[in-house]
Design brief:
With 234 residues, the chain is mostly helical. The chain is 63% helix and 5% strand. Strand 1 and strand 2 form a beta hairpin. The longest helix has 29 residues.
Amino acid sequence: MIIRYVKAKADWWTNAAYYNRERIRRGATVDKTVCKKNLGRLTRLYLKAEQERQHNYHKDGPYMTTDEAVAIYSTTVHWLESRKFVHIPFPPLNYKNDTKLFVLCLERLKEAYSVKSRLNQSQREELSLIEQAYDNPHEALSRVKRHLLCHRAFKEVGIEFMDLYSHLIPVYDIEPLEKITDAYVDQYLWYEADKRNLFPNWIKPSDSEPPPLLVYKWCQGINNLTDVWDVSEN
């Protein structure tokens, strides 16, 4: 009886959350407190569903047959062999493109703050770390590589949802030092993989042509379509 009561209460709680979200989505008049509570409820429901999905994947997954797995593996091996792909080493200590790649990754991280006027504590910490890395890139790079080599305990990732009322967008909060490390690894792997021709030529944008040329070719392709600018039939 207790289990049935708990299940009924959980169903009522879930249904109330979905009912209120539907009212918010339709634009009905809803109290601000109700909106905040509803966001919290939907966040908990999302995390519970994600936990259950991962548990089911561990128990029943991966959801593919042996033939599919062999086909994927064989295709990957043949592709790497056709490209004469050489494995990407760990970033060496005296890597000639280190500083350039690091500055590129810092610029990409800093772009997110170009329009923000108010920052929370984590964002202020990240921005100060980016500025320090700009001022002293060699020290920051050695710290990033030491982080990659020696770090074994990683910080938790925070998640909260941005409520646009029609839908929710997950926003992940990652510790600033780990974010800089991830950005550098991403930049390094992309550059080295592109240099080794890992990606096919239809993967765009790529280092083989500058972005303005890519945009020009894309516009030319649209312009050359038959009757693409014909608006006689609306």
